[in-house]
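Please go through this chain and its backbone structure tokens and walk me through the local backbone shapes. Keep your notes short.
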Amino acid sequence: MPASPASAAPSAAPADVGRTPRHSALGTALIIAGAQCSFFIGAAFATGQESMQYFTSHGWAGIVTVLAMTALFAWTMTSLTEWGRARHGQRAEPFTGICGPLIGWVLRLLSPLFLFLISVMMVAGAGATMSDAFGWPDWGGKVLLAAMLLLTLSMGFVGLVEVIGRLGPILVLLVAVVSAWILIRNWGELGNAAENLEKYQPAAAIDNPWVSMLMYSIAMLVIAVPFLAALGSNGEAPSRSTIPGGLIGALIFGVAMGVTALALLAALPLIHDSGAPMLVLGSDLNPTLGVAFALVAFLGIYSTAAPMLWTIADQMPGRESRLVHRLTGVALAVLALICGLVLDFSTLVGAIYPKVGYVGLLFFGILLVRQIISRSYSLAPRH
């Protein structure tokens, strides 16, 4: 159920708001689902680091928690896009609109910082991906990603959604297909999963599987709050529900994460200490497939970093001006490149998400309470 509307006067429309090309109801749902998936796949998902540290490292218990993660993603993605749809064309700010002025203000300050840190992680992941796959110097992939981000961020929000909305489902599908292939090939090893975990224990970001799932999910979702709200408010038809798109997006992402986690569990002896386990497994299947999967991973990194940097720019002063908004995005891309050149990818994956997750608990606790109160009020008898 979407969050109840907060009372706020309409204000200026966001920079780069405009109608996307007309789509059918199914087309709109798929574009929304694709844009959402693109935001979440990123470097750590495409290379397998997220699945490894937050799910596979906990064995079968970690695989079970993927189901809970999918449900949590579905609730959040539908709630926030519907919240934005209810404020179509307004400069509505989801943190203050849902959490109130004080807590919302604090979250608004922290959100750009978290987004930027994860964008830096994307840049670092681009370097690791192209280095592992093609033998490039570490800076080569980082510079290439930064150049692609500079180009995309100059297109504005509508162009961004159109690009990543089509790219996202393709990338997630390819990751899922390769993961399924790896899983089938190593199916017999699943019977030895418990033994392999003792012998080849990969690094876990958090020891408890349920806490690990919760912190990962909330960290991913809280940084997406402004983007998901904008995705709803900037849609082509304010009367068209965004719920189908959110449900489809959550299902696609959850299935892909589950298959990937299982594939890594089945292939632990090969990848337990790898920085990019999916690339290693793809190359093990077929050298050509390894190259193709490296490109998929790189595009996944790009499709996450671009909306993240756009979201940061959309929270900065002067965002009402399209020129200022786009120049801010360009400057952020350059800064992310500079930071990404000096920071380590795998260290960032394990360090950032848990800390962001603790902050996100506050936001989603308030969102849940608001929805319960709103639902209770709507069901109360009227006299």
In short: The chain has one domain: 25-374. DSSP finds 16 helices and no strands in the chain. The domain at 25-374 is CATH 1.20.1740.10 (Amino acid/polyamine transporter I).
